[in-house]
From TrEMBL:
UniProt cross-references to InterPro entries, sorted A to Z: SecE_bac, SecE_sf, Translocase_SecE/Sec61-g
Entry protein name: Protein translocase subunit SecE
Membrane-crossing segments per the record: 29-51
Lineage, opening ranks: Bacteria, Bacillati, Bacillota, Bacilli, Lactobacillales
Task performed by this protein: Essential subunit of the Sec protein translocation channel SecYEG. Clamps together the 2 halves of SecY. May contact the channel plug during translocation.
Family indicated by similarity: Belongs to the SecE/SEC61-gamma family.
Keyword set, alphabetical order: Cell membrane, Membrane, Protein transport, Translocation, Transmembrane, Transmembrane helix, Transport
Gene: secE
Organism expressing this protein natively: Liquorilactobacillus uvarum DSM 19971
Amino acid sequence: MKFFKSVIKTMKETRWPTKKEAVQDTTTVIMTSVFFAVFFAIVDYGVQAVIKLLV
């Protein structure tokens, strides 16, 4: 019982993000994911080109 009371107390003290903060954080995550996808695609293409030159 003590555990559940502690969980309820903690949930009441939790500050949830506003809509603006949630949208901003989501946008940041999406943009970072796109950046890394493009970065790794370019690196992969470069490595493939180097391997084709060597083989």
